[in-house]
Design goal:
elongated, 2 strands, mainly alpha, 5 helices, 2 domains
């Protein structure tokens, strides 16, 4: 999913709130979500798309929260309900994100399974089959420090 596709989907999801948000707010929300999650656009993994969208939506709500903060009170009338609702939504979304980071550690890490285990440690000593000569420290026996899918 490209950034433009994400922005279009976000605009469809927030519906009536688009009147309070500018086009740069959607771009900034997507950029903030990308910085937070560590994924860049385009995003192809369905888990990454879901969480990129959720975090973008969270940032949009925080923009609305900031905008509503200056209208917190008007004379003697309290308008805190809108403010509290945005704050509650943001807190709830943050809790879900923290729980997902713990639960979906493999999907959200952005690495393949073979990259989880750092250095490859070979069996130890190596000997030539016919002569029995020690070839442990020959250049062909160097330990691979950067794992790949085939090793």
């Amino acid at each position: 999913m490209t950034k433009d596709e994400m922005i279009t989907q976000l605009q469809q999801e927030v519906k009536g709130l688009t009147a309070y948000l500018g086009s740069e707010d959607y771009t900034n929300a997507c950029d903030d979500a990308a910085k937070e999650t560590g994924w860049s656009f385009p995003v192809s993994n369905s888990t990454a798309i879901y969480w990129q969208k959720q975090r973008s939506l969270r940032h949009l709500l925080s923009y609305l929260l900031y905008e509503s903060a200056h209208r917190f009170k008007y004379k003697m009338i309290n308008l805190q309900h809108r403010f509290e609702h945005y704050k509650t939504l943001i807190e709830m979304m943050d809790k879900k994100w923290e729980a997902a980071k713990d639960e979906l550690i493999v999907e959200l890490a952005g690495v393949s399974g073979y990259q989880f285990f750092g250095t490859k440690v070979d069996a130890g000593f190596a000997y030539e089959e016919q002569t029995g000569r020690d070839i442990t420290f020959d250049t062909e026996q160097i330990v691979i420090h950067h794992p790949n899918e085939n090793s």
